[in-house]
Specification:
This protein has a single domain, classed as Alpha-Beta Complex (paralog of FGE (formylglycine-generating enzyme)). Helix content is about 20%, strand content about 20%. About 40% of the residues are buried. The N terminus is likely disordered.
Amino acid sequence: MRKSLIALIMILPFLAMCAGPQITSPITGAKFVLVTAGTFTMGSSVPTINEKQHQVTISKPFYMQTTTVTQGQWQEVMGSNPSQFKDCGQDCPVENVSWNDAQDFIRKLNNQERTDKYRLPTEAEWEYAARAGTTTPFYTGYCLSTDQANYNGIFYPYPCPKGEYRGKTVRVASFAPNAWGLYDMYGNVWQWCQDWYGEYPSGSVTDPMGPSSGGSRVARGGSYNNRVALCRSAKRTYYTPDRRSFDVGFRLVRTY
């Protein structure tokens, strides 16, 4: 017992350093972890059409939901469940929701909690939180296994190991979180961001919010249906705001 207590005391400072303070939504029970301000390199070191590396400063801390919004949380606020994978259960991510649907959820949740603090993350906030201080393609390094995220592991670049393909969503927080206490930043469902899709700015920027208008909204993180390359921290995709799909969901940010 004494050895266990000593071990716990030794690891507590490390855990505190990795994951910040948490708050909980009184309506949905969703947990949010504090993400502190900082500067990072956004984008990919491998030249791509839309992942040009540039320095980004996040000047203000914010709370990010530790998981994507679940079917149970959606139903608590909206009174219905649009998900294709209802048989997965209330603790599985809500999907088949458009960007516009996510905005309706946010408006209702803000009204129910009498606040205006809930919103989608900006694209920069999402990548900053996903990386959790890392610079590699994944916060797990250069490889991501299907024991670490839910994606299509049948197609995998050498020398990383081949994995399984589950073909559906799984319960949120089924895998270990990143160093900042965030689960499922890769795979399971794509996650809507607030931004319109557009080219990255040139040079260093602070708190970028994307273009002022556009035709498509950004989504991040990949899904159960994608190969691993689409789950990278820097990977961007985009859909029209009214598009619903069985592999697209979202997580919330709460203003600090």
